[in-house]
């Protein structure tokens, strides 16, 4: 085929999310099965299309070391099959999409080829150029976000080179989200930052920095209730996934969130509505440790004045020797214990995680016998739900005078 004909052929390749290749609007996608290594070769040549790739380099990146007895002939067969597949997609049996020169292969760049990861990189480069205006940079970031529809070649992530590039693109995307939000804050487009953060969290739900940006976005738009709700959601999420309390990491956001009241509200009913909790809650109140301390101190002051009694119970997950539990299932045990405590106490009781393996319960208006009964009930329910014999639960009950 001559170059004039090649230039009229339009090829579109999507690397993010599900891989697909379209040649003159004929598309192949959802690639798997016996052809997956053929597609890995095509993907590798497209990604490296601006240079000739030696046969040794291709073999190293297509087959794990020692996985192929005759890699050179296997590569020749793979190239043949790749060429046939591409011709079949295009409907042109004379088209040569893969070139061979001097023991090297290269994607034929005489074809008009649009590739989403290349466009993504160009938009990110433009957006990061501080010599550009804020509006131009924001638009470039948004264009990049539209292209990033998921991980880079997710169905080919069994290959090392794919994993490395996927990690690189993930970090580029996350960095871009954070920078775009900062630009939007500076131009008072905080609502747009909320949508960007929400979309990013669909793909990276455990990225702490994006969660922080979303919290700041809620604060800057005056959505205090949403900020507090999301703050508690994030604390719970990270505890469930990793068994860690990140309240200290979010301390600066929390202080800004609780002190940043932008509007003066004169309608007391509006304030009461904001303060009111969902009416159908029947379980104990779970909060982070800083909030727990504040509630504890309020109760302590009340007890000084009224003479009422309150008890504190500490639940600790230990190994069978009474030492710190270090089993593979400790996170599961902690989650089961937390859930058991919350669902077997009164809704006026307060619970917090003191560490990854410890929970504190605050029981107001109760005597020692009832506190002891509560402890036994929780332990019985827990052992019914967690039937492993690798841990035990230690408890301590203390009265607050």
Give a nutshell description of this structure:
The protein contains 15 helices and twelve strands. It is an alpha+beta fold and 401 residues long.
Please state the structural category: alpha+beta
DSSP helix count? 15
What is the fold named in CATH at topology level of the largest domain? Serine Threonine Protein Phosphatase 5, Tetratricopeptide repeat
Query: What assembly state would you assign to the polypeptide chains in this entry?
Result: single chain
Shape: elongated
Domain module tally:
3
Radius of gyration, in angstroms, nearest whole number: 29 Å
What is the name of the CATH architecture of the largest domain? Alpha Horseshoe
- The H-and-E topology, N to C, reads as HEEEHEHHEEEHHHHHHHHEHEHEEHE
Can you tell me the CATH class of the largest domain? Mainly Alpha
List the uncertain runs: 260-266
Strand order, largest beta sheet: 8-10-11-9-12
Percent in strands: 5-15%
CATH superfamily of the largest domain: Tetratricopeptide repeat domain
Describe the biggest sheet? 5 strands, mixed
Descriptive overview:
- The chain has helices at residues 3-8, 36-47, 55-62, 71-90, 116-127, 134-147, 160-186, 190-203, 208-220, 224-242, 251-259, 268-275, 289-306, 330-343, 368-385, and strands at residues 10-14, 20-23, 26-29, 53-54, 98-101, 104-107, 112-115, 285-286, 310-318, 350-355, 358-364, 392-400.
- The chain has 401 residues and is an alpha+beta fold.
- The longest helix is centred in the middle third of the chain and has 27 residues, at 160-186.
- It is elongated.
- It starts with a helix and ends with a strand.
- 28% of the residues are buried.
